[in-house]
Amino acid sequence: MADALCGIWVDRAGQVHLAHRATADGVCVESEVALQPFAWLDAEPAAELLDGVPLQKLTGDGAFMWLARPPSLDAYDALIKRLRGAVAVDGVRPLESQHLLETRQRLFADVSFAELRRCQLDIETASSGNGFSDATLPDDRVLAIGLRFGDRDRTLVLAEPTDAAEKAMLAELNAVLAEEDPDTIEGHNIFKFDFDFLRLRAKRLKVPCAWGRFGQRANFRRSRLKVAERWIDFPRCDLPGRTVVDTFLLVQLYDITTRELTAFGLKDVAVHFGITSVDGSDRTYIAGNKIQDAYASDRATFLAYLADDLRETKGIADRLLPTYFEQVRTFPITLQEATLRGTTGKIDLLFQEHYYHAGRSTPAPPEVKPFEGGYTRSFQEGVFKHVLHFDVASLYPSLLLHIGRNPKNDALGVFIPLLKQLREYRLRYKQLARSAESAEERAEADARQASFKILINSFYGYLGFSGARFGDGELAAEVTQRGRDLLQALIEELSRQGATILEADTDGIYLSTPEYFDRPEELLAKAAAILPAGIELEYDGRYESMFCYKAKNYALYDGERITLKGSALRSRGIEPYLKRLSDSLISHLLGVGGESPSDLVVRFRDEIPALKTPVQELAKTEILSQNPDTYEKFIATGGKPRRASAEVALQMTPRPSMGDRISYYILPRQKGQTSDWQRARALDAYDPMMAAYDPKYYLKKLDDWVKRYEPFLDATKLTGPEEQGSLF
Fold first, then answer.
1. Is 640 exposed, middle or buried (0-12, 13-18, 19+ CB in 10 A)?
2. CA 325 to CA 444: how far, in whole Å?
3. Helix and strand numbers, DSSP H then E, in the chain
4. CA dihedral 369, 375, 379, 383 (to 10 degrees)
5. Quick one: average pLDDT of 346-371?
6. Domain locations in the chain?
7. Any idea what the Cα angle at residue 331 is, between residues 325 and 337, rounded to 5°?
8. Would you call 112 exposed, middle or buried from its count of C-beta atoms within 10 A (0-12, 13-18, 19+)?
């Protein structure tokens, strides 16, 4: 192994602490260098504002044509403060990225993913209250800290329920992390639960959170992450020289494009990825309110449950982390920033690096006007057999290379050569993923090609983003227009070959063709013949059946598993009993079988009025889109609309945060109540005697579900007992 950079941290004095893995046994060697800070300015400041800071005029006519080079971090901070309001400043944050950019270094450049020193962490806690652990309560202790290093578990277990024993266990955690020296610490919801809980217990017991490298403690701060259209608030934890990986956040980022997950909990995701079987026969389960009892009376089961949590966490990280690991070998960025930062900011760093070392001025982000998106259309409704999926390989990047024009403000001409280089890397590793000798080499190559695929596809999105320094809305609009034209030409050709087009979305086409189902390559070759040079059509899979519901909403069955696409079929906010109905209906439509949707409807119509359906099957779960305190102020000033989940959050102690999941049910209507939010109660507050759910409300939702799927249901089996045969 070469001298590989595996950790970096910049202290407040401006010293860059580096951890290099330079020995065969993987031990890190630490070193220090001084940070060489810099910042771009859009005008030459007055001499008194510069206060002796060296200033370099850059070539080109970009908006930021001056480069300031303060001699120290203190001088850098002082300069930024003096320039506030006088000139625009464009800097690089965090400072670790600034050092990597300035020195053209990359983390883990000579380390394979298999050589990454990884740790999975999961804790189990006691509860003295209503079933939820509260780290601020004296007796809600940490019962165990599960740690996995590779295939070794080092589980720390509370010796006895005392402050002294818990304090010793927290101190032992510090010692184990220092001894094992992991590059990453991975956990599912580790920011909001595990590390935050450990922080509060450590504070109570006066134990330092010495979890970082270079003898440093953890740093905590409030942060937020944008996931598609919503924000998630979380207490971020930064460990100098190490990376905290929260797989709970990674699965939500993953689902932005796949739209396959119906829940983000550890056990749900583990089943989705095949880490744990659907029936759960290969893992130990303990109900949340029974964990403390298992610790006390069934230690073997308790430890097996914790070990399975670690195994599932590792399995999820094995699947999702390699993409980000490969990104840090491409961008001047830390691994933790890679997992929490948008793609636009990463691509900007590459451009800034090229312009910085070329001594060239950089542009300000241009305004990008709205433009028409990709081609999307649903052609059919119903169930179809013998389905093939074709897509155009990296459609937009390929079109960009075909056009061959850099963004208007890319004076250095970086965009197209960089895109071409990344595409060549991707093709090289894609080939290695098929031909490498060992399974480990093939997996490594596949992770790299997948990462580069994401990167090159992001170049198009970067062009159309108003915050991108080198954005170009006109070029992005031209690319989408050509993409629409190309996809329509493919649809016409495939139809001419006898295929029934089912669904088209941006760069892919689903079609039904009994003739070519067992020889898709023949149909692929005929359709690909109409494409321009450099644009490739790929066969991306076949399916026994497909349920087309409406545009961008469909279900696929490949003979082993069902995949749902679109929010109409897989809304995470839907009540469990309705989700169960939808899953049953889709399973039957696709020919998979399972429980009958007709029988389910009849059963729910019998059980709900008798309050026999468990409230957990009826309760709705939503993710808070606003902090409760902010919502409360919004309502106090007359803000509307009022939302059931937000109202329930106001009832809870402690109050949850934006991004948390809230489960609630609806009480029977009282006089004067006109809206659902007035009747919403937290699921944990359910009382079948004093505060039961409203049967009429849930029966009405059941009837609405039946009507929505009327074209696909057998009406004679789904009618109510009073009006047999007349529901529709």
1. exposed
2. 11
3. 24, 25
4. -100
5. 94
6. 4-100, 113-328, 568-718
7. 65
8. middle
Q: What's the pLDDT score for residue 131?
A: 62
Spatial CB neighbours of 293, under 8 Å, sequence gap ≥ 6: none
Asked whether the beta carbons of 254 and 245 are under 8 A apart, the reply is no
| Six token digits for residue 649 | 């959050």
Tally the C-alpha atoms within 13 A of residue 674's C-alpha that lie toward its C-beta.
2
What is the CB neighbour count within 10 angstroms for residue 268? Answer: 14
Q: What value does the mean pLDDT take over residues 191-200?
A: 97
Give every CB contact of residue 492 below 8 A, 6+ residues apart in sequence: none
Assign a CATH topology to domain 113-328: Nucleotidyltransferase; domain 5 (3.30.420)
- Please give the structure tokens belonging to residue 493: 């050709």
DSSP secondary-structure letter at 44?
P
Q: 209: how many CB neighbours lie within 10 A of its CB?
A: 21
Question: What mean pLDDT is reported for the chain?
Answer: 91
Who's near 94: CB < 8 A, 6+ residues apart?
Answer: 10, 334, 337
Peptide bond connecting 711 to the previous residue in cis, omega within 30 degrees of 0:
no
Tell me which residue of 108, 172, 183 sits closest to 149, measured CA to CA: 183
163 vs 180: CA distance, rounded Å = 26
User: How many Å apart are CA 543 and CA 197, to the nearest integer?
Assistant: 46
Are 649 and 655 in contact by the 8 Å Cβ rule? The answer is yes
Q: How far apart are CA 164 and CA 147, in angstroms?
A: 21
Per-residue pLDDT tens for 606-650? 999 999 999 999 999 988 888 899 999 999 998 889 999 999 999
Kindly calculate the radius of gyration of the chain based on its CA atoms and give it in whole angstroms: 28
Alpha carbon distance 638, 630 (integer Å): 13
Residue 401, burial from CB neighbour count under 10 angstroms (0-12, 13-18, 19+): middle
State which H helix or E strand residue 540 sits in.
strand 537-550
Which of 322, 324, 348 has the alpha carbon at shortest distance from 334? 324
Neighbours of 438 (CB within 10 A): 8
State the Cα–Cα distance between residues 642 and 676, nearest whole angstrom. Answer: 9
Tokens at residue 305, please? 């449950």
Domain 568-718: what homologous superfamily?
B family DNA polymerase, thumb domain (1.10.132.60)
216 DSSP assignment = P
CA distance 280 to 216: 40
pTM: 0.83
DSSP codes of every residue in 70-122 = -SSHHHHHHHHHHHTTTS-EE--SSHHHHHHHHHT--TTTT--GGGS-EEEEE
| Residues 16-59: tens digit of each pLDDT | 999 998 766 678 899 999 999 999 999 999 999 999 999 999 99
pLDDT score, position 237: 98
Q: Provide the pLDDT for residue 716.
A: 36
SS3 content of the chain, % helix, strand, coil (to 5): 40, 20, 40
Contacts of 640 (CB under 8 A, 6+ apart): none
Which of the 8 DSSP states describes residue 19?
A: E
H or E stretch at 617: helix 615-618
What CA–CA distance (Å, rounded) separates 154 from 519? 51
How many angstroms separate the CA atoms of 360 and 217, rounded?
39
Comparing 593 with 570, which gets the higher pLDDT? Answer: 593
> What average pLDDT does the segment 412-424 reach?
92
End-to-end CA distance of the chain: 70
Strand ordering across the sheet containing 562-565:
376-378, 500-505, 508-512, 382-392, 537-550, 553-557, 562-565
Q: Residue 389: which H helix or E strand, with range?
A: strand 382-392
